[in-house]
Design a protein that fits this description.
By secondary structure, the chain is mainly alpha-helical. It has six helices and no strands. 57% of the residues lie in helices and 0% in strands. The radius of gyration is 44 Å and the shape is elongated. The two termini are 79 Å apart.
């Protein structure tokens, strides 16, 4: 279902300001397009009145003329005052929030106790004496080694020989792996 809309008339490229004389009448001599737009407005009003009389809702089709105020007009100055008051209120709220943040006192740093210092020294000593096998990395290495050995044990003799050759070609420095594979997976 298609609807008739007036969305195109909201475009700044299509809208046109009517030139009106002091009495509120369209000045056709100053701008001929204004006279044409005035006639369109009159026709629109007439058609909308007919549609309303026939029981249709003509509100979406009704032209809504935008009123332009003079630079020093009452409406314009009231709108400007309202806008400035809102901006000033927002600025005051930001200043209040900044003052709250700025005035917040940072809690003082708590001094270490002798027990906490002793605990720190104990943990540092424990870390210095820690081996790689006791870490997650060491446990992961052991797990991968076990999985590799299980894979080697499941290989046939020809597969194991082919695997040994590929390992020797890749890494001549890793003699441990070659020895483990040659031993049939027993370290």
């Amino acid at each position: 279902k298609r609807e008739i809309t007036r969305a195109a008339l909201k475009s700044k490229h299509i809208r046109h300001e009517q030139v009106v004389d002091g009495d509120g009448n369209v000045d056709a001599a100053a701008d001929p397009e204004s006279a044409y737009l005035k006639s369109l407005n009159d026709l629109n009003s007439m058609v909308c009145t007919i549609l309303d009389g026939a029981g249709y809702n003509s509100k979406p089709l009704q032209i809504k003329l935008t009123s332009f105020s003079s630079k020093q007009g009452k409406k314009r100055s009231q709108a400007k005052d309202k806008r400035e008051a809102r901006c000033n209120c927002q600025a005051a709220q930001r200043q209040e929030k900044w003052a709250e943040v700025k005035d917040t006192v940072v809690p003082p740093v708590r001094r270490w106790t002798a027990e906490e210092d002793a605990e720190l020294q104990r943990l540092k000593h424990k870390i210095d004496n820690l081996s790689v096998d006791d870490t997650l990395l060491g446990r992961q290495r052991l797990k991968m080694q076990t999985e590799a050995l299980a894979t080697v044990k499941g290989m046939t003799a020809s597969e194991r020989t082919q695997f040994l050759r590929s390992v020797e070609e890749e890494d001549d420095d890793n003699g441990d792996l070659v020895e483990i594979v040659a031993a049939g997976g027993n370290p």
